[in-house]
Amino acid sequence: MTASRSATGSAPARRPAPGTRPSTTRPVDAVTRVLPDGTGDLVGAIPAPTGVLAFVSGGEGLVGWGEHARLTITGPGAADRIAAWFADVVDGLRVRDEVAAAGSGPVAFVSLGFEDDDESVAVVPSVVLGRRGGVTFSTSIGTPPLAAPVPVRSPGQVRYSDGALSAAGYAGAVRAALARIAAGEVDKVVLARDLHARTERPVDERHLLARLAAGYPSCWTYAVGGLVGASPEMLVRRHGRTVTSRVLAGTAWPGGTGASSSAALMTSSKNLSEHGYAVASVARALGPVTETLAVPDVPHPWYWPT
């Protein structure tokens, strides 16, 4: 799976940057409460088909809807600008958090561009539904408008067509990349091929999320600003002063047993090299900002349940 943006669940508080103050200037109540046990699945509680916000795995995480505040930006330093904007949003809230868990209280769902000219989006929803450690909670900012839930609807028949490259064109790009690697021009090349999909009916983002969450329960299923997907990787997670990262590279197609697939991965020079590049890139990024850095000597296989 490839995407031009990555989704995260929250942004840290920083001092506000000039010109990024949200429109709300009076203090607004943000209240987080514990909900009764047995509240349904998170994705199934989202009331509308678009504007969906989600970051869930294994039935836990966060979903949101409505917009208390939104920021769309491009240019360098997007992460720092979003963090400053989020701090300014929180400054305008009276927070009462009865849960005090990771993800409770006001949060920002962020889709962060990879390149300086990519668009980055941050949304502070007016309603958040979360679950962590078996505890379900909600956060409401202000008085969100009440609306009857819209039933989830399938998009109907889907027709696919080539995007920027045809299948033959993509195969040609692979051959060209291999030739450049063999010539010593580059060490690693990441290629992707896009497809265009036309649906019979408008796409209900909840339908996509539910299918992804059910099919890949151990992955992180996300939705921010119209970007919907699922990934087994957790690039960065911070708890207090501890940062962890789970990076995956190299793939074995299903068909054999778990043991045979693991053996194929762990003895493949191609897959081991690919994983090594990924781990090294993360270690280089984390090294300057950590006191101690532990990197496993060898990779470990991870199974993507189907």
Summarize this structure as a short list of keywords or feature phrases.
306 residues; alpha+beta; eight-stranded mixed β-sheet; four-stranded antiparallel β-sheet; 28% strand
Task: Summarize the entry for a quick read.
The protein is α+β, with helices and mostly antiparallel strands. The chain contains five helices and 16 strands. It is globular.
Q: Note the quaternary state here.
A: single chain
For the record, give the distance between the C-alpha atoms at the N and C termini, rounded to a whole number. 15 Å
Largest sheet: number of strands, sense, barrel closure: 8 strands, mixed
Measured by DSSP, the beta-strand proportion falls in: 25-35%
Structural class: alpha+beta
**On the 0-100 scale, what is the average pLDDT?**
85
User: Helicity, in percent?
Assistant: 10-25%
Number of helices: 5
Rg result: 21 Å
Uncertain segments are 1-24
Strand order of the largest sheet: 6-2-10-9-4-3-13-14
Q: Strand-and-helix sequence, N→C?
A: EEEEEHEEEEEEHEHEEEEHH
- Shape from CA axes? globular
Number of strands: 16
